[in-house]
Amino acid sequence: MFEKEYDVIVVGGGHAGAEAVAAAANMGSKSLLITMNLQTIGQMSCNPAMGGIAKGQIVREIDALGGYSGIVSDRSAIQFKMLNKSKGPAMWSPRSQNDRMRFAEEWRLLLEGTPNVDFYQEMVTGLLVKGDEVVGVRTSLGLDIRAKSVVLTNGTFLNGLIHIGEKQFGGGRAGEKAATGITEQLVDLGFDSGRMKTGTPPRVDGRSLDYSKMIPQPGDPDPEKFSYLDTPVLKQQRDCHMTHTSKVVHDILREGFDRSPMFNGRIKSIGPRYCPSIEDKINRFSEKDSHQIFVEPEGWNTVEVYVNGFSTSLPEDVQYKALKIVKGFENVKFFRPGYAIEYDYFPPTQLRHTLETKIIKNLYFAGQINGTTGYEEAASQGLIAGINAHLKINGQEPFTLKRDEAYIGVLIDDLITKGTEEPYRMFTSRAEYRTLLRQDNADLRLTPKGYAIGLASEERMRKMEEKERKSKDFVKFFKLTSYNPEDMNQILEEVDSAPVKQADKMFKVFSRPKVRMDHMLQLKEVSEYVKSNEINREVMEQAEIQVKYSGYIEKEKSNADKLQRLENIRIPDNFDYSKLKSLSYEAREKLNSIRPVTISQASRISGVSPSDISVLLVFLGR
Ligand SMILES: Cc1cc2nc3c(=O)[nH]c(=O)nc-3n(C[C@H](O)[C@H](O)[C@H](O)COP(=O)(O)OP(=O)(O)OC[C@H]3O[C@@H](n4cnc5c(N)ncnc54)[C@H](O)[C@@H]3O)c2cc1C
């Protein structure tokens, strides 16, 4: 039924698994995607949306490297917004609302169109391990399938336990079985495991809602998209809506607290701090009488609606009674109640930067199994694991991204260096170089790297080069071309900026905060340049950012270069920290368990102080 030996087996067809198998196969590995249900490849377990703050940057990075999440998101989008547009470009974050069914369908189509991907539907219940190396997987039917490497992306399925009020039952997602066997085997092999929880809101019938009582939330009038390739831009969009909970809603919800698994001790594990359930919100922020609810359509052709902001595991009768009081929901009909789920994860400090496990060779973990939350976080880890699984079995150098190169680099470095005790999600504040890690330049940062390893296509690379060349030339044009003071003063008056007295280079005036590209385009020389050089929106945006922020960007680059020196001091693999008695006891313990690769990584481990780093530097210097 199967190849005698696959290069890569990916277990799980969620966001991590789909990216992992696509990357390995596109690089040339004979790959098998084995998942419990082929109908749910690329399934969005929770909200029908991709991107958002910091997450949107990750989707752009995945796309720039040659992954598929951006393409799938664009092809299934029903609404698009660039969040934080009023702030600096480091904060701009693309977000799409998606057709849930079409998203999964697009994933399946793309994977079916990818050479080297085989599919099989079954539950993997164990790994085939020889010595300290993985050699394949065993399925619930008792089939042994051999492979040179295995990527585990089990998501929320490992010993998943669903809670609704006082009821609890096994499941990986509503309506889907939990996965068993793998955790137990990994623990026997010496892995640490833990439990986490997450939750989801009810889904309701859009025909039962009164949208006239809610505030419309339209998409951007001139929507952008995620992929740097030629994916479609939305010509039509669907609105979301906003409404609010009230004190009465909160009082009704409180009536159910004694039957809540969150409060009666049934759920013991920690949930996502930044995606709290509604009961958590009214408990933690008891002074607030109202919380926002976003009413999000689940697709183009369905009446199903996602009630964002109302995640709950309260009994279904309480969910219903409370939601009926919310403005616009007076006649609400439920499609599915909200629920919480507890699942196993593996503390990610047990991984290398490639996401290979330290204990078992050629075994990789990616996605929610590593204690993260979110599609984007999962997909990016899948991509890195798939790439490295392929590279390692072909005897090639590992592929890792540094903290000043990508949010993906920050994510993985945080996970493997600091670990996480609560579901980890990405924020811009986690990145120390966010001026460098913008959504607009992910292609400039990463496409050459994706191309060098054979993942990003020729077309992608050429597009990136063209954008780079054109934007550099455009900036040069502003530096070399002088304006006519009369024309320029007309614009400056319009934006309420001090007039100029004589002709000078356009760059100078364009650098002023109030002067934007739209204004510069009013100058004949600029509009003619744009026309004759076929300058598109992306190039304009890039050139504008370079003109306005080059000072900040250069400063951050130089800071990153300084820290890079510590990144270059490597610590030998077998370094024995216990011999260095001048290290603090905590530092010795942490360094021995995490085994950082460089001094810089060592300095980011919590419990390793600057004086411990000095000790290490002195010793290694010797
Ligand atoms: C109820 C719920 C609420 C959530 N709420 C949020 C939220 O509020 N915010 C947020 O950012 N994220 C949320 N998430 C998390 C988000 O869905 C995940 O972060 C993301 O889907 C993880 O992707 P993944 O690829 O790691 O795993 P998943 O998307 O869970 O995919 C796992 C895949 O592995 C397969 N699989 C599992 N075990 C086996 C096995 N043994 N053999 C074969 N196949 C297997 C499954 O069938 C599935 O296809 C929620 C998830 C759930 C279930």
From TrEMBL:
Keyword NAD: yes
Family matches, as Gene3D superfamilies: FAD/NAD(P)-binding domain, GidA associated domain, C-terminal subdomain, tRNA uridine 5-carboxymethylaminomethyl modification enzyme MnmG/GidA
SMART domains on file: GIDA_assoc_3
Location of this chain's protein in the cell: Cytoplasm
InterPro entries, A to Z: FAD/NAD-bd_sf (IPR036188), GIDA_C_N (IPR049312), MnmG (IPR004416), MnmG-rel (IPR002218), MnmG-rel_CS (IPR020595), MnmG_C (IPR026904), MnmG_C_subdom (IPR047001), MnmG_C_subdom_sf (IPR044920)
Subunit and interaction comment: Homodimer. Heterotetramer of two MnmE and two MnmG subunits.
Protein name: tRNA uridine 5-carboxymethylaminomethyl modification enzyme MnmG
